[in-house]
Amino acid sequence: MNNVEQLLVSARHAAKAAHCPYSNFHVGAAVLCDDGSMISGCNVENASYGLSICAERVALFSAIAQGKRPLALAVSCADAQTSRERGTKMPCGACRQVMQELLPNNAKIHIDGVGTRTLNQLLPEGFQL
Questions:
Q1: Of 22, 47, 61, 116, which has fewest CB within 10 angstroms of its CB?
Q2: Secondary structure (3-state) at 109
Q3: What CATH number has the domain bearing residue 41?
Q4: Of the residues 45, 56, 85, 125, which is catalytic?
């Protein structure tokens, strides 16, 4: 199994742990780090919706908190393999902005059921300070 397949499997597994009692939209993400490790995360919802957090950000923030350097990311919705609505399974704008900050410019984002995109394809001309 190559790194992309491993990342997608890890993201699919993480989606099962999602805490999403309001949307029932299970999402998992996995980050490949420069040391070869993989860090996963899932979406965690809150009754105060603004306090919820997406799987991509959980995985990226966890990697950073562990002192790791993220290189690539995979994201999977629980129904990504069976859904016909491919465009609805894309990372949100907030996650794309965080990816720009924490991933290299040439990072690959593997979106289960959709395909692989570069960070620049997902967020051209993103905000920078």
A1: 47
A2: strand
A3: 3.40.140.10
A4: 56
Asked about 125 being catalytic, the answer comes back as: no
> Which residues does 49 contact at the CB level (< 8 Å), separation at least 6?
22
Domain around 97:
3-122
Round to the nearest angstrom and report the end-to-end CA distance of the chain. Answer: 39
Place of tokens 């490790």: 37
What is the total count of domains within the chain?
1
Answer whether residue 56 is part of any domain: yes
Q: Where do we find the tokens 């894309």?
A: 90
The identity of residue 40, as a single letter, is S
Residue 97 lies in a domain: yes
Question: Over the stretch 14-42, which tens digit does the pLDDT of each residue have?
Answer: 999 999 999 999 999 999 999 999 999 99
Longest dimension (CA), the chain: 40
Sign of CA dihedral 103, 107, 104, 85: negative
- The model's pTM is 0.93
**pLDDT digits over 55-96, tens only?**
999 999 999 999 999 999 999 997 655 555 656 689 999 999
Q: How would you classify the pairing of strands 70-77 and 108-111?
A: parallel
